[in-house]
Specification:
single chain; alpha/beta; seven-stranded mixed sheet; 14% strand
């Protein structure tokens, strides 16, 4: 199983998919307990949700599960949200603070280092290569990092999460017009709620790659799973009606981002 799948396109937009993978090597699966083997914290069906919305977008998708190692965490293990509950580079618990490893089977430093080399690094090498390729072609690249989470996770946040959670690391990871366009579209989506830089302001991918001064922009979209799943519990079934409505808004977002990026090309009129 290759740790990363890349589909190259001609657009300046790159879709990052770090958490849709469900591959777990046998040795890792054997170390997980019954709860861990449910893979509950997968970004269920997010790759299907975005499929075809921006036909020329490049996609970079991790095939491995986040319980193997989390592709959207700092490889040094530094917390994304100091002082707040979160999960780490190799999670110890799920999003409800339930242990996911059998007693005595939690990965040690050597195993974490092995997984960094085997999984985390290849994913980010592929993403970095695509950013360079796209920027060379267009003079600008935009990473749109695709995520989802259950709408209620008391261990991580109070109450119900907004439907659209836009993260730009406090405005540092992308141009203001990109953040403003995404926020405007989400705010205008009937029946949906949204927030900018709320509980989720962008993971390591957004913060690491987003560098507007170098013509690389990054923005994270964390969707509440209630927007596109029939249920936020196993079997996490895709709801085609909900997803169909949501896909219309997501298509508008991606199309607008692409137009803004193309306007940033050297020599483009703005």
């Amino acid at each position: 199983m290759t740790p990363v799948e890349v589909s190259r396109g001609a657009s300046p937009v790159i879709l990052g998919l770090p958490h849709t993978g469900t591959h777990v090597p046998d040795a890792v699966r054997d170390a997980l307990n019954a709860e861990g083997r449910l893979l509950r914290d997968t970004d269920w069906h997010v790759d299907r949700l975005y499929d075809g919305l921006l036909p020329e977008a490049t996609t970079v998708r991790a095939t491995f599960h986040r319980y193997v190692i989390d592709a959207n965490r700092d490889p040094t293990g530094k917390s994304l949200y100091p002082g707040q509950n979160t999960t780490g580079l190799v999670p110890v618990t799920d999003f409800d603070n339930r242990p996911i490893w059998r007693d005595g089977a939690m990965p040690d430093r050597a195993e974490t280092a092995r997984r960094l080399t085997a999984f985390h690094q290849p994913y980010h090498a592929a993403l970095a290569d695509e950013i360079m390729r796209v920027r060379e072609r267009h003079g600008v690249a935009v990473v749109y990092d695709c995520h989802s989470i259950r709408s209620r996770c008391p261990f991580l946040f109070d109450g119900r999460l907004p439907d659209f959670n836009i993260g730009s690391d406090g405005g540092r990871s992308c141009a203001p017009e990109i953040e403003a366009a995404v926020a405007e579209i989400c705010a205008a989506a009937p029946g949906h709620s949204s927030v900018v830089n709320g509980r989720f302001r962008g993971g390591w991918t957004t913060r690491h790659y987003g560098n507007p001064a170098e013509n690389v922009h990054a923005i994270q979209m964390e969707l509440a799973q209630a927007t596109h799943l029939a249920t936020e519990a196993p079997p996490f079934a895709y709801d085609a009606d909900k997803a169909g409505r949501l896909r219309g808004h997501l298509k508008t977002i991606l199309t607008r981002i692409e137009a803004i990026a193309l306007s940033m090309k050297p020599g483009a009129s703005r």
